[in-house]
Amino acid sequence: MLKIYNTMTGLKEVFRPLVPKAVRMYVCGVTVYDECHLGHARSALVFETIRRYLKYCNFKVTFVKNFTDVDDKIINRAKELGIPWQAVTAKYIKAYYRDMKRLGIGRATVEPRATKHMADIIGLVRALARKGVAYQVNGDVYFQVQKFPAYGALSKRKLEDMQAGARVEVDERKRNPMDFALWKSSKPGEPGWDSPWGRGRPGWHIECSAMSMKHLGKTFDIHGGGMDLIFPHHENEIAQSCAATGKQFARYWVHNGFVQVNQEKMSKSLGNFFTIREIFEKSEWSEDLTGEILRYFLLTNHYRSPLEFSDQGLREAKSSLDGFYDLFNRLKERGKTTGPVNEKLTTAIERTRLAFEQAMDDDFNTPAAVAELQGLRSGVNKLLETGLSTKAREQARQQFRLLGSVMGLFQLEKWRFNVDLSDIGVRGLADEEVESKVKERTEARRRKDFKRADEIREFLKSHDIIIEDRPDGTSRWKR
Fold first, then answer.
1. What's the pLDDT tens digit per position in 85-95?
2. DSSP H/E element including 466
3. pTM, two decimal places
4. How many CA atoms lie within 13 A of 148 on its CB side?
5. Where in the chain is the domain with CATH 1.10.730.10?
6. Is residue 240's pLDDT more than 90?
7. How far from each other are the two terminal CA atoms of the chain, in whole angstroms?
8. How would DSSP label each residue in 125-177?
9. Contact of 357 with 54, CB cutoff 8 Å
10. Which of 116, 121, 230 is nearest to 166 (CA)?
C-alpha cells in the first residue's frame, strides 16, 4: 500500500487518488532565464521516478510540468544580454530539453507555458477580484492574505510572524506587507497583455494555479516541487486557488530536499553552484552513460533528505554501476543449454521484487530499493558460480531491467568500464584495440604459444584491462 509524505499534514498518508487507478500530478517547472543546475536535476529526477513508479503500479498518470516564460528575471536577463525576452526563453527552454535528455528524463504529459495561458490567468484574477479577496492599485492587482484564514497552513507559519518572501516586494501601496501580486502593470519596453486592469503581466504564483487547474481540474492529486517553493510560492498558490474555487487545491504536497556542497545549500552567492551542463561537459563520457551515473548518485539518497554533492559520491555511483553491468555481461554469456528451473534464483527474484515494492511504497524510498537490487546482484553472482542455464540468466537479467526501469537504470546494452572519475579525460586503449589484442591472444593459445599469450595478457594488464578465460576456451575482458 503506497504511502506518501504530505507536507501539508507532516504525515505519511495512504495514497488514495480522487479517481481510482488514475493520478493527476502537477510539478512546478523552471523559470527559463538561465541554465538548469543540479537542484533542478534532482527535482526533475524525483518526480520522474514518482511518475514511473505510479505507472509501474498500473496507475494512469497525467503529469503536468510548466515553464515560467514571463518573469522579472527573464526581463532582466534580456536586458543584460541585449536580446528580446522571447529569445531568452527560447534559448533556455532548448537548454532544458538538452539537459533532460542527458539525464534520461522524458517529457511531461502536458508542458504548459504561462504566455500561452493568459486568458486563463486573467480569468482567475478576475474571479478573485469579484470575490473581494483581491484589490487593484494603479494597474497592479494584489491578493489580500488576511481574507484567507488558512494562509500559512502549508509552511506552518503564522501570518503575524511572517516576513516577505523571496519574490515579494515590499510596497507601501499594499494593505499588508504579505499581500502578493496577481497582476503587474508593464513598464515601457516590457512584455505585456491587455487586461481589465490595463496592460500588464501575471505575478509568478497565479501562473501555476491557472495552468494546473486548466489541465487537471480544480482539485487534483499531487502537487510537487523543491522545498524552497513551500513558501511563498506554494503557500500563495493554495490561497489564491482555494479562495477562487472554494475547493481543496491539491491533496498531497510533495517536496524534494536541497542539494548541498560542503554541507551548505548550493547557491550562486556561495560560489558552489553547478549547472547540469557543467557536470556533463567537464568529462568526455557519452551522454547516456553520464546520465545513468548521475541518476544512480541522486537516487541513493532519499528525496526528502539533503543531498551532498561530491566527486567521491559520483565515483561510488560509478563503481556500483560497474558491478551491475559486469554481472549483466556475465548473464548474457551462454549458460547450460538445459536445466531445471533454479528455485534459489526464482525465490531470490520474488523476494527482491516484494522488498523493492515495499521500499517504494514507503514514500518512494529509492535508497532502500537500490539496496535490494544490490542484494540481488550479490545473490545472482553467487548462483552463477554454481552454474545457471541460459534461460535462468535471461530471467535474472530481465528482472534487473524491469525494476531498474522504475528509476531509469540498467537500460544500456553497452557500458563503458574505462571511465575513471578520479582522472577525467585520461584514456587508455580503445575498445577496438583491446578486442584485437584479445583475439590475437586467443589465437596464440590455440597454437599453444603460451609465451605470446602471457605477453599480451601482461600488456593489457598494464593498460588496466583484465582478461577472464572461460572453460570453453574463449575470453572476456573488462577495464
1. 999 999 999 99
2. strand 466-469
3. 0.85
4. 29
5. 264-413
6. yes
7. 42
8. HHHHHHTTSEEEETTEEEE-GGG-TTTTTTTT--GGG----TT----TTSSST
9. no
10. 230
Q: How confident is the prediction for the chain on average, in pLDDT?
A: 89
Find the range with the poorest average confidence among 10-24, 60-74, 443-457: 443-457
Angle at 409 between CA 404 and CA 412, to 5 degrees: 115
Q: What is the DSSP string of 342-386?
A: -HHHHHHHHHHHHHHHHHHHBT--HHHHHHHHHHHHHHHHHHHHH
* 8 A C-beta contact, residue 303 and residue 256: yes
Rounded CA gap, 411 and 449, in Å?
A: 40
Sorted by sequence, the CB contacts under 8 Å of residue 427 that are 6+ apart come out as 284, 418
Helix (H) / strand (E) element for 103: namely helix 85-103
408-441 tens-digit pLDDT: 999 998 887 755 544 433 346 777 778 777 877 8
Detail the DSSP E strand segments found in 154-234. 180-185, 200-202, 220-226
Is 1 buried (19+), middle (13-18) or exposed (0-12) by CB count in 10 A?
exposed
Is 3-256 in CATH node 3.40.50.620? yes
Q: Which amino acid is at 121?
A: I
Q: What was the pLDDT predicted at 181? A: 97
Name residue, grid cell 527535482. 43
Q: Quick one: cell of 373?
A: 537490487
The Cα–Cα gap between 110 and 463 comes to 49
Contact by Cβ (8 Å): 216, 19: no
424 secondary structure, DSSP code: T
The closest of 252, 269, 270, 253 to 261, measured between CA atoms, is 270
Instruction: Check: CB of residue 253 under 8 Å from CB of residue 6.
Output: yes
Give residue 378's identity as a one-letter amino acid code: S
Instruction: Please list the residue range(s) of the chain that carry CATH number 3.40.50.620.
Output: 3-256
d(CA 122, CA 287): 42
Confidence label for 245 from pLDDT (cuts 50, 70 and 90): very high
Contact predicate 113/66, CB 8 Å: yes
467 vs 190 pLDDT, higher one: 190
- With CA atoms as reference, report the closest residue to 184 among 165, 166, 197: 197
Element (H, E) at 23: strand 22-27
For residue 89, count CB atoms less than 10 angstroms from its CB and return exposed for 0-12, middle for 13-18, buried for 19 or more.
Answer: buried
Element (H, E) at 243: helix 235-245
* Residue 183 CB burial class (10 angstroms; 0-12, 13-18, ≥19): buried
Q: How many CB atoms lie within 10 A of CB 235?
A: 24
CB-CB contact of 202 with 213 (8 Å): no
CATH topology (fold) of 264-413: Isoleucyl-tRNA Synthetase; Domain 1 (1.10.730)
